[in-house]
Amino acid sequence: MKEILLIEDDYLDVESVKRALKKIGVKCNLSVAHNGVDGLTALTGNDKISPDLIILDINMPKMNGVEFLNIIKSYYSLKNIKTFILTTSVEEYDKLAIENLGVHGYILKPLDFKKETTDDTRKLLAELLENN
Question: Is the pTM of this model over 0.85?
Answer without folding.
Answer: no
